[in-house]
Amino acid sequence: MELNEYQRGALRTAASRDKRNELLHLVLGLVGESGEIAEKFKKWVRDLDSDESRIDRADIAKELGDVLWYVAVLADYLDLSLDDIATTNLAKLASRQGRGLLGGSGDNR
């Protein structure tokens, strides 16, 4: 599946842009779903001794799907295409790698 195809599909289940506070809803939803992934890994560390064979990959995949949905709909709300975002991101990372700057910090490396 292409990213823009996914984005169009995600929009079929999204609220209208005109809904009051929809932008804030999308941002908070993205943070919340990301937090759910972090919470699952916290419990994996706490309860399962960080044993990678015991990661519930199906459950993590569901949560990653929720994150992807929020990214897709938020991007559309801001008139951004997932294909463009992905292409730009890979180019940025390739540039950093080529300049030996993958490690470190700061957005403008």
UniProtKB/TrEMBL annotation:
Q: Which residues form the NTP pyrophosphohydrolase MazG-like domain?
A: 25-97
Pfam families given for it?
Answer: MazG (PF03819)
Protein's name in the database: Nucleoside triphosphate pyrophosphohydrolase family protein
Instruction: Give the domain of life.
Output: Bacteria
InterPro entries, per this entry?
Answer: dCTP_Pyrophosphatase, MazG-like_dom, MazG-related_GP37
What is the scientific name of the source organism?
Answer: Paractinoplanes globisporus
